[in-house]
Amino acid sequence: MHPRGFRDELVSAAQWVAEYLEQLPSGPVTRPLPAALRERLRAGGMSEQGGDLFGVLDFAEESLAPYPTGNGHPAFFAWINSPPAPAGVIAELLATAINATCGMGEHALMDLERGVISDLARLAGLADSTGGVLTSGGSMANLLCLAAARHWFLAERGAEDGPEYDAAQSRLVAYCGEQTHMSVAKACAVIGIPRSRLRVIATTAERCMDVPALAEAIRADLEAGLLPFCVVSNLGSTPTGAVDIPEPITAVCRANGMWHHADGAWGGLGARVPRWADAFRGIAEIDSLTVDPHKTLSVPVGCGAALVTDPGRLRAAFGVRASYLEGNENLPWMSEYTFELTRPGTRALALWATLHQLGRAGVTNLLEHYDRMAAYLRERVEQHPRLRLLPCGPLPVVCFQVRDIDSHADLAAAVQARGRAYLATVDYDGETVLRACICNHRTGTAHIDTLIDEIISLAEEFDQTATSRG
Ligand SMILES: Cc1ncc(COP(=O)(O)O)c(C=O)c1O
After folding, report:
1. Closest to 110 in 3D by CA, of 304, 300, 336
2. 296 falls in which pLDDT band (50, 70, 90)?
3. If you measure from the C-alpha of residue 177 to the centroid of ligand 1, how many angstroms do you get, rounded to a whole number?
4. Model-level pTM?
5. Is the beta carbon of 138 within 6 A of some atom in ligand 1?
6. Are residues 306 and 187 in the same domain?
7. Are strands 387-389 and 227-234 parallel, antiparallel or unpaired?
8. How far apart are CA 461 and CA 13, in angstroms?
9. What's the CA-to-centroid distance between 180 and ligand 1, angstroms?
10. Which of 132, 141, 362, 369 could disulfide-link 307, Cβ–Cβ 3.0 to 4.6 Å?
11. What pLDDT does 127 receive?
12. Residue nearest atom 16 in ligand 1 by C-alpha distance
């Protein structure tokens, strides 16, 4: 390939990216993928001789970009899926060109990862000792932290290996709340904790973990000869945005020699918002935290983080060495703190670039923007006679119902199909209700108005259909 061909194509791609992101809010949130295109994408079918470099941009423009999930659009409210931060988009391209692996060797990107991990820990309000690694997302961060917790607990009892390990592993018990993300159950399964030894603790009326019920469950398990080793709390539950105050849960963990892991995949930096800060009381004393910069900070996917207040415990779990990978014993490579060896540098540079552009004040402003938008949506719901707000928050998730509607799932699907706004549903005390999550820096009150208008006009259409059938 001629170098000028590469340069020209790169410039075209960069121009296309800028225009695409600029125009995104004026188009539909998403569009249905035509059946023929779906078939073509699924069929594979690479050519024998290869194609032109410029075919890549054409393909992305025609076959992929028009059919996104929709999370780049400011009227997208489903799940906790952000648009990409502009600084992150640029950084991903640059890091891809450098193409360093943040798992081995000594190089600048790996030091940058160490630096952004410290920045994240400080933003979250964790202890100064905190270290950790960037991950593909919250699921992987939960897995790493739970694996570290299990290893630490067994090592404390001299049960890392041999018959002691066999005897202890089958008695380990973990605890989480009813609102816990399903990735915690997956992580438990991977580290050998079956569902029957993952206790799901009831929640209070505020949807927080019931701490006396937690203490009682641990007491009962100890009495039965089991080994309670870890509690997983929520700093921003996925269904309703509830926060488990860390302080009393850590106290229960300390009293029982257990690890406290907090899943703050999307709410982990919430202590920065004065209105939420009290709910994050005691965050500096937890043992580990999951944070997903690809959620509330809008770093392009996938960028999560596993933060551990004693990073030596992560290394104890994952620091398996080999003769072909001998790094500096005193400054271990990042692969000694995680499952991955070859790891992308895109995460570190994209996170650094996003934090660099925002600054600490910018991070707080961003979270406060989400809070203001959620407050506006709650107000609109409360004011509308057809809508009913359900207890939710304090983080920016809004759960609500439409009165006299047969199926909220059908209503959400109809909103999605019209393409002007997009939201999803959630199970709320056994009922399917509407749920809107706010995590887009471009979302304004006009987008929330559009969402409400869409819901109401479709509910009226549903009424008419029911009447004419009726
Ligand atoms: C609380 C919580 N934990 C973990 C996850 C999983 O994160 P990821 O999708 O980045 O793997 C999510 C995803 O929404 C979440 O809300």
Report:
1. 336
2. very high
3. 15
4. 0.96
5. yes
6. yes
7. unpaired
8. 43
9. 10
10. 132
11. 93
12. 238
Residue 1 has pLDDT above 80, yes or no: no
State the distance from the centre of ligand 1 to the C-alpha of 263, rounded, in angstroms. Answer: 8
For residue 193, which of 157, 232, 237 has the smallest C-alpha distance? 232
**For ligand 1, is residue 135 a contact (CB within 6 Å)?**
no
Do residue 120 and residue 249 come from a single domain? Answer: yes
Dihedrals φ, ψ of 251, to 5°?
-60, -40
Pocket test for ligand 1, best of 207, 266, 435, 438 (most atoms within 8 A of CB): 266
User: What distance in angstroms lies between residue 183's CA and the mean position of ligand 1's atoms?
Assistant: 7
For 46, the domain range is 3-67
Backbone phi and psi for residue 405, each to the nearest 5 degrees, phi listed first:
-125, 140
286 and 192 co-located in one domain: yes
Strand order across the 131-135 sheet: 131-135, 304-308, 288-291, 259-264, 227-234, 172-177, 198-201
Of 291, 325, 356, the domain-final residue: 356
Residues 136 and 17 in one domain: no
267 in contact with ligand 1, CB cutoff 6 A: no
* Domain co-membership, 144 together with 264: yes
Check whether residue 188 and residue 109 sit in a common domain.
yes
- Return d(Cα 94, Cα 401) in angstroms, integer: 45
Let me know whether 9 and 154 are in one domain: no
Residue 135 dihedral angles phi and psi, to the nearest 5° = -135, 180
Work out how many domains the chain is built from and give that number. 2
Specify the residue with its C-alpha closest to ligand 1, atom 14: 80
Angle between helix 138-156 and 182-190 (nearest 10): 50
pLDDT at 182 over 80: yes
C-alpha 79, offset from chain centre: 10
Do 37 and 181 lie in a common domain? no
